[in-house]
Design brief:
CATH architecture of the largest domain: 3-Layer(aba) Sandwich
CATH superfamily of the largest domain: P-loop containing nucleotide triphosphate hydrolases
Number of helices: 7
Number of domains: 2
Distance between the termini: 28 Å
Largest sheet: 3 strands, parallel
Strand content: 5-15%
Structural class: alpha/beta
């Protein structure tokens, strides 16, 4: 049996060779390049479903004197905006939220280095990169797709799921290893580095 992952993300598009969903439109991705980083910014850079929200909470609390009271007043998205995210329904644009925030800012992104703000290498801002086992990323992504309406009406099953195109065979062990290797390659490509087996 062979097949391909057939689910389409709402508004999906390719930008500079990478697949994005509709919440990261080209105009926002273009604007990110001109985003002005500050020396006291902390960027949290992750592959999606790699523990981003946990890290946002931890870093925000550290940068804000462990102020749980303030943290409980606002959702993490408003304290640590998602730089390339645009929600047209709620009229929330991560880059605009970040531009209006006082320092120190904690900013989330899933962008690879080549799509980061132009002054990324010139500023003294800090970057926290979170890595997660690709097998766990795939599992988390699968459950996210099944539970979130933001990715469309996802109807795929476990054996046919992957964020990358991949084959399906009758051998479940081969399927899992193949999916793992494909997800690993996607993560490596995203982070622009190679790992050793």
């Amino acid at each position: 049996m062979s097949g391909r992952f057939s689910h389409k993300l709402p508004g999906e598009h390719v930008y500079e060779g990478l697949l994005f969903f509709g919440f990261s439109p080209p105009d926002v991705l273009d604007a990110v390049k001109d985003f002005q980083l500050r020396d006291d910014d902390v960027l949290i850079v992750t592959y999606p479903k790699a523990g981003t929200t946990w890290m946002q909470e931890i870093i925000w609390l550290i940068k804000n004197n462990v102020d749980f009271e303030e943290a409980n007043k606002k959702q993490v998205y408003f304290r640590s905006p998602f730089l390339e995210f645009k929600d047209e329904v709620l009229n929330e644009i991560g880059i605009e939220m970040a531009n209006t925030m006082p320092s120190p800012r904690v900013i989330k992104t899933h962008l690879p280095v080549k799509l980061m703000p132009r002054d990324f290498h010139q500023k003294d801002s800090k970057t926290v990169v979170v890595f997660r086992n690709p097998k766990d990323v795939c599992t988390s992504y699968f459950h996210f797709y099944r539970s979130s309406s933001s990715v469309g009406n996802f109807q795929e099953t476990g054996p046919s799921f992957s964020t990358c195109s991949w084959k399906v065979t009758d051998d479940k062990d081969e399927d899992f290893e193949y999916v793992f290797q494909q997800c690993k390659r996607c993560c490596e490509s995203f982070l622009e580095f190679s790992t050793k087996d």
